[in-house]
Amino acid sequence: MYNALPALEPLIEQLNKLPGIGKKSAQRLALFILKRGSVYAEALVDAIVHTTQDIHFCKRCFNLTEQEYCNICNDTKRDSHKICVVEDVVDVMAIESAGEFDGRYHVLGGVISPLAGVLPADLKIDELLRRVDEEDIAEVLLALNLSTEGEATMIYLSQFLKEKGIEVTQIAYGIPMGSQLEFIDQTTIGRAIASRQKL
Q: By the number of CB atoms within 10 A of the CB, which of 56, 81, 145, 147 ranks highest?
């Protein structure tokens, strides 16, 4: 791609690494930052640095937090006997916006995908099973994205959870196969949570 300013290339390359940002979009973003000037650029850098320094993963559920435990884990009004297992932090945000689930969460950090080199040991599965043993959990809702890998991960988890006598449910199939929770509207997610099914 033509670039009249080679000095702009390092910024374009970094922006191109962001998910969903192609080379042309990265170039447009770089030019936007350049046009906004140094005050905006410094504020952007400052926001990125502070975010990466101040925000980390919750010690219990691996959601994002500024404290040791996230706001959901610390909320005593939540049902501590229910855990909703999700693939990523964005899924917690999507389900929370629907306002239908009143328990706590567990973020796996992905799904099992041998072809992509992601094995059970690479995910927060051991931590989930430990929580089930230690926290008096009655129900685990599996709310993974409905892909082949998500389905395989749900089957894998349900085997271990059922052995422990835990009720295992999954979100209803009103959510289309292959879709990602972060892109589903709140009403559809809410209905899927409310009509969850046993596995």
A: 145
Closest CA to 139 of 91, 106, 107: 106
Phi, psi of 115 (to 5 degrees): -65, -30
Q: Which fold has domain 6-51?
A: Helicase, Ruva Protein; domain 3 (1.10.8)
Other beta carbons within 10 angstroms of residue 52's beta carbon come to 9
Q: How far are the Cα atoms of 22, 24, 49, 86 from residue 144, in angstroms, in the given order?
A: 27, 32, 30, 5
Fold classification of 77-198 (topology level): Dna Topoisomerase Vi A Subunit; Chain: A, domain 2 (3.40.1360)
Q: Beta strand pairing status for 64-65 and 56-57?
A: antiparallel
Distance CA 143, CA 170 (A): 6
Nearest Cα neighbor of 145 from 194, 186, 88, 104 is 88
pTM over 0.85: no
What pLDDT digit, counting tens, does each position of 154-186 carry? 999 999 999 999 999 988 766 566 667 777 777
